[in-house]
Design goal:
alpha+beta, 21% helix, six-stranded antiparallel sheet, 108 residues
């Protein structure tokens, strides 16, 4: 259980510094709620994830990534625009004994 908490902390800390590293490399900054523009292509990507962690007394812990969603949009700068959302529901379930993707559902 301690290793899971360490991994979760490492992911959190890495996510906090990712935009700064992107800016230092000369890439456009990521702005929360606006996604990441891919150069001058008119394509923007974004998304979200949700996770749950349960550690009830006298029972094994359980964690799950319940939603992974990717947004892709395109704007030609004129009349044409496109938007797509791809989602994996109930993507990953973790517990003391295993990691499972058996309940994963892909939605387009």
């Amino acid at each position: 259980m301690a290793s899971f908490r360490s991994l979760a902390f490492l992911i959190f800390v890495t996510a906090q510094f990712a935009p700064t590293a992107s800016q230092a490399a000369g890439n456009p900054p990521y702005r929360l709620g606006r996604g990441l523009a891919l150069g001058d292509t008119g394509i923007t990507i974004g998304g979200y994830a949700s996770a749950k962690y349960k550690d009830p007394a006298n029972q094994p812990w359980k964690a799950e990534i319940s939603d992974l969603s990717l947004f892709v949009s395109w704007d030609s700068g004129r009349r044409w625009q496109a938007f797509s959302e791809m989602e994996i529901g109930e993507a990953v379930t973790l517990d003391r004994d295993n990691i499972s993707t058996n309940e994963a559902v892909f939605e387009l």
